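Dear support,

Our group has been running a series of protein-ligand predictions, and this particular one with zinc ion is the one our PI (initials K.S.) wants archived with full inputs and outputs. We had some confusion internally about which version of the output was final, so please treat the block below as the authoritative record. The input we submitted was:
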Amino acid sequence: MALKPFLLMMLDQATELCHRLASHGLVVASDGNASVRRGDGFYITCTLSEFETLTVEDWRWMPVTGAPTTGVSSEWRMHQVIFRHLPFVGAIVHCHPPYATSFAVKGEPLEGSLLTETGDLERIMVAKFAAPGSGALAKAVIDALGETGKACLLKQHGALTVGQNFRETVQRMERLERLAMVQWLVTRGYPAHPTPT
Ligand SMILES: [Zn+2]
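Confirmed final output from the archive:
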């Protein structure tokens, strides 16, 4: 696939940021997918692609409206519906970071106001459970994101962030996981100074 220089640079940067998510333990195996808007459609990672070893060749373009391209992530419906409903969204990241997923399993929202750097995320809602890859999950995610949403959790599944560009979207995922870690420690953490026995 011969790509124009700007496009190549964009996908190159997105690929590197996916490597970063994997190196920080936010994605393991092929348990994540990502997309970036381009023209009347978007580039999305291939099915079963692994973030740790992702390459520029692992991205496929598909339209915002219409049938998917062969080989795209099984979660393509969720990405397509978000791009269609939220015109300000330029990129999407979905993965299963451990602390955020713990809250997703519990069905408990994250409180962005706990940290200065996540204040803009406000309350991060939990999308109701639906089978991965289904149209029902895509609808549940739109409901949880709301009209100005930036992030949500997926019940018994994982987390999703959106942003104007790929870097902003990845940073939101990193901060969301840090927020989940802090919220876990604040609400369920062990005492800082255990009582001597
Ligand atoms: Zn998932």
